[in-house]
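Posted in: Structural Biology > Protein-Ligand Complexes

Title: Requesting predicted complex, adenosine-5'-triphosphate in pocket

I'd be grateful if someone could produce the 3D structure tokens for the following input. Sequence and ligand are given below.
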Amino acid sequence: MRFPPAVLQSPAAREAIRIIERLRDGGYFAVLAGGCVRDALLGRTPKDFDVATDATPESVQRVFGKRHTIAFGASFGVIGVLPPRQRDVERERLVPTEVATFRADGTYSDGRRPDHVTYGTAEADATRRDFTINGLFYDPTSDEILDYVDGITDLQAMHLRTIGDPDRRFDEDKLRMLRAVRFVTTLGLSVEPSTLAAIRQHADSLAVVSGERIGAEMRRVMCQADAVRGLRLLVDTGLYQQVWPQLELANWAKLQFCWERLQLQCFETAMATTLLVLHRNASDAVRDLKKLTQQWKLSTAEQRAISAAIDLAPKIIDCADMPWSMLQPLLVNRDIEVIVAAAQAIAEDRAGIERARVELQREPALLDPPPLLSGDDLIGMGIAPGPHFRSWLDQIRCLQLDNELRTHDDAVAWVRRQA
Ligand code: ATP
Ligand code: MG
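-- Reply #1 --
Done. Output follows.
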């Protein structure tokens, strides 16, 4: 397998190579490591380019100068190296490149992280990584792939396999089980049988992993075209009990069918669609969302968009004959894109969605005209604030949208008739 040279042309890759060359000039050995090598060999665009080196964090700081480095995770050997000039940061949107010292993890006693970190050889650093496909290095100076873990064989076969005994590796760090589901989903791999068996065996122990880290992995799983496969794997391995117990209810054929119609591939639409398919009614879906919001630490914006879609997607599906005054407030919802996408995924009848899409093309002034009358106007008319206030303003808004009141004066006259 050759490392595709085109991948090395991006600004981020050139920056990583600059760093590798500087470290070499300083007498150290450095390579590209982990996810970027895997992605490049799979013909994908790497998200970022991580460097691994035999230089200690202090030496890395010395080579680049303190001002050009950030002690990211100095305690576990990671230094961020900044591009040489601020200009490059702005022009090419470069972020610091992570430079990690080769390390050999010691023992694990909490099921989450090594008790202490010791620096080691490139080979030790490869073998402490989780999966063989993640244990590859690329040396750009010699154009060689360093494969201490038989990762290339597994990449070619599209197999996900732990480095070393799967039982021990999942016992050390439980999050790796969920990372397995993530890599299967994002990269379209199959899980090698002994790795799969070990996940099944250790699934319950995922309970020691924080909900936040579970949420971070699930965000990545849910954004994929192939997410349903990931969700099925969660159930198949038993991990779902710690991640999302209600997946037990899933009608997979229906979920897959809806998934294929999901056009906006984002976390919020994916969640809303799954929750709507999973649960018979909106209140069950909302209850499930509440639990996940707490456990996965969803942001307010994520939670808002997902619950808006659960609540309003069914209304959009049924909106074909709805009066404009009822539909308009739905269409000006700030999460309307998520709502319509979820509606599109679950709808049996498309008439409502087609109408919503057409109406959404209206010019802003027609989609959401300024109100004819405000609460201040009512007070100005000498009307005492009270419960009828809101109700009148709402009625005026409806009449405005349905074209029965056209001007401020029409609205004032209408109020006079009520008072
Ligand atoms: P991506 O960045 O695309 O999400 P990645 O493989 O780079 O994928 P990271 O979480 O950035 O994933 O980790 C970088 C590398 O560190 C991995 O490729 C793997 O070699 C190693 N690694 C990360 N997490 C673990 C873990 N829990 N146990 C062992 N090795 C790990
Ligand atoms: Mg990475």
